Fold this protein.
Amino acid sequence: MNQKNRKIIIGHLYPDLLNLYGDRGNIACMMQRCKWRGIDAETIEFNTGDTIDFTKLDIVLLGGGSDREQAIVCRNLLEIQSEFKAYVEHNGVVIAVCGGYQLLGKYYKTDAGTIEGLNLVDIYTEQEEGRLIDNIVLESELVDMPVVGFENHGGRTYINDNKPFGRVLYGSGNDGKSGYEGVVYKNVIGTYLHGPLLPKNPQLCDYLLSKALERKYGSAELAPLDDSKEMQANEYIVKRFVKE
Ligand code: GLN
């Protein structure tokens, strides 16, 4: 495969409703890191009610949202569920943040009612007393640096026998009790981390890009980039919150 002819198509789902704390910055990060490497990249935004052709997509982003916005999105989810499920089962890459993460599961139960999810991963979320709000630091098998971000959620997510995205070094994570954060299923990552996540953790961005390239082209060479500034920022946060 000629390395120059590679192209990644990113589907941004419901940016009109799911875009808390600048989760859209994850798109900018993926686009830019492709561009720096001469990889062609395109983002297609799908707003509620739009038809989505998952067979054209290489990466899907679902951002965070308020309970109210999630309830609106929920009505559109059933229409796309089977195509989205086929995409996931065929190793399509998904990054779902907070409200988007909760929507990957069976349901999100709130005081105002139960929001039915996409049922793509065997997890569920229930609202409990108090919101979990703070910076957060994880250690994840997927990357060799700590993952840093910010969390703000009322829902507690239970991942059954699934693999967590990381172990919490500082912060609350999935439920504030288990010591774990997020979920990994095939090429899907669900996480509570805003930040936005990918600019703060460029290695995670490259993990997603390589999974997408591997699936599309069978190989995933990514030229190294100068991430020294991002690494300094990461180190600062880790030192500030994680006690040796
Ligand atoms: N509404 C959800 C909750 O409070 C998710 C919030 C978010 O996306 N930050 O749990």
Summary: The mean pLDDT is 95. The chain has six helices and twelve strands. Residues 20, 64-67, 70, 98-99, 152-155 surround glutamine (CB under 6 Å). The helical segments are 25-36, 67-89, 99-104, 197-200, 202-217, 228-241.
